[in-house]
Each structure stands twice: as structure tokens, then as C-alpha cells.
Amino acid sequence: MNWRRASSARSAGLPTLVLGAGHAGRALVGALRAAPGYGLRPVGFLDDNPRLRRAAWLPVVGRLDDVATAAKATGARAALVAIPSLSSSRIAQLIDRTLAAGLLVRHLPSFLAAVERDMRLSDLRGVQIGDLLGRDEIHVSSQRARSLIRGRRVLVTGAGGSIGAELCRQIHRFEPSALYLLDHDESNLHGLHLEITGSGVLDSNEIIIADIRDRRRLEQVFTETRPHIVFHAAAHKHLPLLERHPCEGVKTNVGGTHHLVDLAVRHGTSRFVLISTDKAADPASVLGATKRLAEIVVQAAAGGPTCMASVRFGNVLGSRGSLLSVLADQLAKDQAITITHPEVTRFFMTVEEAVGLVLEAVAMAEYAETFVLDMGDPVPIVDLVHKYAEAVHLPEVTIRFTGLRPGEKLNEKVFSDSEVRLRTAHPKVWATRTSEVPPDLPAMLTRLYAAADDNDEPATLALLQQMLPEYQRVLHPQTAAGVAGPYPDGF
């Protein structure tokens, strides 16, 4: 076929070959079409996939090494290398071959990195969130929280994570007298502080490097900062990893929470909010069990000078390690999409919804309630994958089912069978209070911490099941064809 005639000058710009018809190459073509001012007009792809004939409405005119032949056939005068996964030596080889063919060559790592970043983070404003979730996005009013936060000292643990960082962004707008960012990852704290304050000078006492397992360090933090409000978002949250390392889950999710609750009460903190998970409802995993125990630790401190609350989330779209980020990575590499089971469902919410719920909870809390957003019906992950792929103009995707792994449920729920839903002042926010705290909780926690500190996994798991009768650990999950991969919950 005469590709030169087929790609005649319909628009201004240098005729350009795009090396790589994968996600990055297609995204690059879309960006160049939308911005003709770059002066490059894509006329065809080169790709080593023999099955590809067209991509992004352009022909695939040869393999990567066919650049000289393709340039003659299309009249191309420039080439763009658009395969981020290639080794530096292979990129150098392609650039040499392209230059030898007499083409202007561009390798744009910064531009491609921006494209990949935007896809991984997924600007949900560009995707119909209602289509993905099967419901409208819920905007939880935070006016009451604004009045509580303004002029007060606020401490956020896990500030470098997705939820913690978004909390800090929104709290900063409420004009607290001080906003303390606590995390053990200094690089995330640096970036967040720069974003919020516009200053990269790390001389602020509002940036705190600390591990919530370190009681003495936390004592020092509370003594120096005297926070009025604490938002506790720090946790281990990767379900499959905690199944393999249950002692680490106990040390951080239970022990770390216990340290913070005790210190909040001792130092006169007025309000304390724990970030929990829907997996704490009738837990089947170490993640769910440790977060359920963290909720009980919070509840046990009720009735004192500090108003306590917990907030359960479903899966958060757009957070680090979430479905959309894993999905975007797999699409970018033209890999099959991995899902654990064809019928698996999950509750999903956006980061904005999650943080709105936390801020509402801090204002509504009275007696150590656990708050849950009304997220509608659970979403089949298979449906969400197809809808997301269509939204980013990749309607054809290959799905591989890997099988449910230990600790994973086929379907999540936000309330335990033994919990009663209670209405709150907000029509889309529910609450629950669980049964009374066991009288032997302090002694049992002491035994649990000792087992975890000894890294005694059998004893740790046995104590978790003894303390939480509703904890039914899934040891032999229902499986589908395939081999399980190292992916987050549900996919």
C-alpha cells in the first residue's frame, strides 16, 4: 500500500513515525493530534508485534528495525521513540538506526513519563466516575469540620500516603494553627510539604519523621506538638503481604494505634480519628483482623477526655497501589489485566469521598462510633476494568484470572453481621457501635504484642482468632485458572 499517499498532508507538521504502538505510543499520538503546535504529524507506527495492523487510527507500517524502509514508504522525516520499557542500549540502537536513515529523531523520556504518570494517577475528572462506580460520587459536607479545625493544632500520621496526603491538603485549607505531617518516609513528606506550603526548605517543625511503633519517639512528638486533633492514617495495608507477615501487621496496625490512642488521651487531645477498612467487618485476613482490633482499641478509650472515632473505607480509586494504578501500569505495558476471580466485587470510592468522610466523622463523633460511607452496591471488578479501558480509549483488553489468595473474600461488606447500622446527621453516612469491650482486653493485648515482638507467627495468629471470634481466616481460597500474581486486593 502507498502509505505516503494515504497519509497526505491533511495538517501541518513534520511527517513522523512513532516507534512503539503500545499505550505510551498511542497516548503520544493523541497528544500530538491535540496539540499541532508541536510541529510533528504522526503518519504511522513501527512495532514488533506481528498481529498489529493499526493503532490509534494509524497504520503499523513495519517492525522497529524497518525504520529506513518505512521512512521511504511514508515520507516520514522524523521519528519518536515511544517505548519506555526498552533498555537504554536498545533505545540507543534504534536512535542510531533512525539517524542513519536520515530522520530527525526524538526520544522524549520526560514527556512519556508525564503521560505514564497521568495515566497511573488517573485524573478521575476526565473519566465518568459514576460510570465506574455504578453511582454518583458523594460529596460529604465538611463545614462542621472546618469550624473544628480552624485555629487548632492537627497531627496526621501516615501523611505521606494517599489518604494522609489528601487529608493534609484539605485540612491545610481549613486554616489550622499548625498542621503536623508525620511519616517514616522522608521523601514523601518533603514532596507533600513542598506542595502544600510552596517551600522546599526542610526547616519546619511541622515535618516529623517518626515510626508509630516507637512509643518513646511518639511521646516526644506529643509533648512538643500538643495536637488538638489527630487523624491516624499510618498502617500496613497490603493484604497478601500481611498474610505472609502477620506479626508486622500487629506491631503497626494494633500496637502503633494503641500508642497513639494512649498518648492522645494523656496529652489532652480533643478528637482522635482512626482510618480503618471495610475488611474489618467479619475479617477473613490479617489486615482485616488487625484493623478490627485497632477499632476496638479506639473504642476502649471512649468516655474519657478525648472523643474517639473510626472510619471504614472500601477500596480507594487513585490511591497508591489501587486498582486503577495497577491497571494503568498493565495497560501501559500491553499486559493482560490480572483479576483474582470473574465474580469478585469490591466497594470503591474516590480519595475525595474518603477524605470527606473522615472530616465529617471528626465533627460528628460522640461515643467512639465507626463510620461508613453509603457506597451503594459493590462493583464487579471485571465491569470496572472494561469501563476504565473504554474511558481511556482502549476498549479491547485481555483479562487473566489468577485465583483468590489467602485472606481474600469474593465479596466484601462494610458492616459485620453482628453490627447495627445507625443513622447520622448526614444522609449518606452511617455509623455503628459494636458490643462492649472485653474486660480482659489489656491482658490479651499484652500477650499479642509479646508474640508479635517474638515474631511467633503461629502464636500471633492464634491470639488474633481468640480475641476476635468473628475472624474466620481463609486458608484455602476458591481459585480460578492461572497462577496468582503479586497484585493488591482483588486484582
Automatic annotation (TrEMBL):
Residues 154-431 form the Polysaccharide biosynthesis protein CapD-like domain. SUPFAM superfamilies: NAD(P)-binding Rossmann-fold domains (SSF51735). It comes from the Bacteria. Coiled coil: none annotated. PANTHER family: POLYSACCHARIDE BIOSYNTHESIS PROTEIN EPSC-RELATED (PTHR43318:SF1), UDP-N-ACETYLGLUCOSAMINE 4,6-DEHYDRATASE (PTHR43318). Belongs to the polysaccharide synthase family. This is Polysaccharide biosynthesis protein.
